[in-house]
Amino acid sequence: MSVRIDAEMSNGVPGSEGSRPEGRRRTGGLRDGIHSRLSRLLRGPRPEAVPTIVARACTLVGLLNVAAGVFPRFRNSRMHAIAEVLPGALGPFAAALALSTGVLLLLLAHGLRRRKRRAWRAAVVLLPAGAVAQFAYRHSVIGVLISLALLALLLRHPREFAALPDPRSRWRAVANFVLLGAGSLLLGLVIVSVHPGKVIGDPSITDRLAHVLYGLFGFEGPVDYYGRTSWTVGYSLGALGMLTALTTIYLAFRPEHPAARLTEDDETKLRALLDKHGARDSLGHFALRRDKGAVFSPSGKAAVTYRVVSGVMLASGDPIGDVEAWPGAIERFMDEAKAHSWTPAVMGCSETGGEVWTRETGLDALELGDEAVVDVADFSLSGRAMRNVRQMVKRIERNGYETRVRRVRDLGERELERIQRAADDWRGTDTERGFSMALGRIGDPDDGDCLIATAHKQDDEPGPYGDLKAVLHFVPWGKDGVSLDLMRRDRSADPGMNELLIVAALQAAPKLGIARVSLNFAMFRAALARGEKIGAGPVLRAWRGLLVFLSRWFQIESLYKFNAKFRPRWEPRFVVYRSSKDLPRIGFAAMQAEGFVTLALPRFLRRGSAQPRPCPHGTAEHEVRAA
């Protein structure tokens, strides 16, 4: 009541804010609004928005330049017709310049959006060249103004483009040659075919293709034109060929910037942290994959391991080490991502890890699935719920199979070598799979605490691996736990080898001092479990139906059902991300890291590469730990 009365009284005081005439207040508000808009316009865009604006505009300018260099009808100026007949006309040369500049700007747009310093330097050189080409070939004042405006933005905000280079190798030169060469071939066919009124005769598609191939290498082809059109086509094709050659040569001979790898010193530090704090996270030992990099907290008491895939900086699991030191390691991780303009993301962290990540960075978290953990003391084959597993195990044992569960350090050298060869040959695909929940090696001398469960059967004709029929590999989880790494089996062995070996490992666990066993990760387990229950709504049922459909390729439902056989407790795992628009990119990068999507060269071209092997993950039934 008092607030309302005071307001009414203020309106009655002459000269107060409330006593101003309504029209005067509206006029002043409109004038202030116009003034603020003009001020913002003169100041230009916010500095943090400049990379996105410039990238989009460079895409537009690149398309304009390509169109100017390719399509005759795109040139709508009468001055162009006069300029082409003048002595020393720049028409053909300007067309080639416009075309090559446009293609390069299109290639640079992605780097500019990611604030790359080298992309900024290249754009500062190319934009004036594009402006010259726009004016000389199209006499387009608008195109020139756009190029110069972008150049002014780049020169005004150089600090916004300070990101360091991504990891790279010389294989990018091969990819550039294939992709840009194919694009040049298609664009060349368009260039040859967009002059129907000036072509002499009626060349076939084969003649046109031959003309493009000759032109890319700088030679005259079988297609002929009236007037100066043959020069324009020839210079444009030559520019595309030269662009493909120069970019390939540059990528082939530039210094390599290798991806981060786990150094011996990093591995030593991580093992020391795992000795003290490894019992907290079942995925901790997977931080020792050697195709990951590591950043440590200033105190050295915590670390985050990661891998960069397609511009996404992927961490896996929780940070290693003392929880109180996690923020320092997370801050170093975020600084590294910012320095390279990588998209930060975390795959498979626990609920505690998700809370720390979101609190310290402002990122968001989404439940990804559940990890199956079996407490050894509670496991038993008795009871109705375990009847199917019990019957399967008994049937396999009656068929003559036996199991052995041992630490890696207790295996002989020859037997270990046989297991390594068998696991590699039983993988089933050319692509190695796994990243966040896979170690990537078997039998390393430093991994003596790892556990191997094997199935054996004496045959009349022993195979190349003797009586070995299946292998399970577990990594340490603190002092009293193990976490499943890989599952491999001979395809000719009886079904149920994985169930047999998991039961054998659980039964042998007490003698080995193991109290808990982490099995596979079930992606979207909660949705699958709730969606099949009575009373589930249409949205949940539709979501479950989609997951079941995707299970044909990604083993989503099969892993959930396989894990559920052992009556585990479910521990939720999360993905941490910056914004919803990053999720598709993060998902694609995660699928690349896990090996479900492969963009690498064929195996026969990679034989000479010294890249370390990613994790050996199989594709047989239930043998992918991370869906």
How would you portray this structure in words?
By secondary structure, the chain is α+β, with helices and mostly antiparallel strands. It is 48% helix and 14% strand. The protein has 20 helices and twelve strands. Strands 1, 2, 3, 4, 5, 6, 7, 8, 9, 10, 11 and 12 form a twelve-stranded mixed sheet that branches. Strand 10, helix 16 and strand 11 form a beta-alpha-beta unit. The two termini are 62 Å apart. The N terminus and C terminus are likely disordered.
How many H/I helical runs?
Answer: 20
The protein's oligomeric status is: single chain
Shape: elongated
Helix content: 40-55%
Number of strands: 12
Largest sheet: 12 strands, mixed
Provide a compact summary of the structure.
This protein has 627 residues and is an alpha+beta fold. It has helices at 2-11, 22-43, 50-70, 78-85, 91-113, 117-138, 141-156, 171-193, 205-216, 229-253, 264-277, 326-340, 351-361, 387-398, 413-425, 497-508, 525-531, 538-554, 556-564, 583-594; strands at residues 293-296, 302-309, 312-316, 320-321, 343-349, 364-375, 402-407, 451-456, 468-476, 481-489, 516-523, 569-577.
